[in-house]
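Lab intake sheet, docking and co-folding queue.

SAMPLE TYPE: protein with bound small molecule
LIGAND NAME: S-adenosylmethionine
LIGAND FORMAT: SMILES
REQUESTED OUTPUT: full 3D complex as structure tokens
PRIORITY: normal
SUBMITTED BY: R.K., bench team

The fields below were copied directly from the construct record.
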Amino acid sequence: MLCSSDEIRTALREYLAWWGLRHFSSDREYFAWQRQQFSSEDLQQLALHVERKRTGDRRDEIAFYDLAAQPRLYPVLYSQRYEYYEEIGLRTAAHLGQAKEVLDFGCGIGVLTIFYARLFPEKNFVGVDRSSASLAVAQEKADKLGLRNIRFECVDVETESLSGSYDLVVATHVLVQAEQDHGLPSRSWRTFDRGHSPSQQLSFERRIGLAIRLDRLCRVLNQSGRMIVSEKTRQLARRVPFQRALAKRGLQLAERPALIRYRTVEEVVDDGPFYVLDRKGEAALNWDEDPEQDQGQPFDPDAVSTSAGDVDMPLYENHWPSAQTAWEQLKDREVIRETTRQAADGRQVHAERGRSRGWQYLYCANTFDQRQLVIVEEARSAMLDEYYQEILRGFT
Ligand SMILES: C[S@@+](CC[C@H](N)C(=O)[O-])C[C@H]1O[C@@H](n2cnc3c(N)ncnc32)[C@H](O)[C@@H]1O
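RESULT FIELD (auto-filled):
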């Protein structure tokens, strides 16, 4: 029996190595390995399927995961998710609690499901996925380990119901996967508030397939059961409608959500939050719909001063949501020109060129929570005029 979190982490690393997964500290090393393992046809096939998955329908998504499950490909591909497995796997393992019957929805090739089943032989696990090739890999791996407390079911929850009854449902990276979806816009460029339009909410839930997935998962979750979910919902435009979809189905926060950060090849991913939910009806914790505390430079309108160093540096620059507060604090603000544009789907952008106490500024805000404030000296105002035009050209 493994007890400490260090022991569980070590066990997870040994287990990932058993899958043939490697951890890379540099992208160069990863791609060198990938070049050794993949032929140019493999790379072409993958690129084609990634593109079809991005632009196509559920059949294209299934075809992508079937391809990724090929034994020649998955160790290299899923090594990109090494730190994700650590981050999500260890957190989830720490929350399996008293649950006896656990469903891992969208288990893929079963990397995490099998890890949990090995760690907790007294619990029963069911992994569900709609990629039959992924489940074939999962079954083979579970058999190799001689596990008796795990089984897999091929179900597409978009088209079929789930059966059974579970104390815990785990769904990670499977509920909100439509990365190109803009989510729910704020009511106007002036606010981060989304308003409460049931039709907009329903449209979001339906177009990304969230409604049907959540409804079917809720049906197999025991009344006293828990749900663990974590998705790519860091942006407010996705986080707010996702949280509302959970709340609408009676799911509440059992603990404060944790933000998830890990490195994949070529980027540091800010995912999450990681939610632990129940339906106990003692909702002590509120859903947070505010922008996160960001890394924007604090703004003091009385302390903007000519930079002694690099003349190319703006006097103040903020590309985070807190740029809105900084813009609101500008003193003696004089607008030189401003434009607000609205696209047919309701998206709005606002660009504003102005003066404040002898400095020149550019402020830009849109309904997808992007904010930008740049302040420069009078002599450098042409640079802001160029940015201003660029922002408007980029919004069609
Ligand atoms: C990004 S992978 C995540 C795998 C795993 N949950 C993890 O966290 O590593 C998403 C998986 O969800 C599965 N999936 C997506 N929609 C599904 C649906 N409607 N029914 C069953 N499986 C689905 C896909 O086939 C794929 O294997």
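REVIEWER NOTE: The chain has two domains: 83-278, 301-393.
SIGN-OFF: pending second check by T.M.
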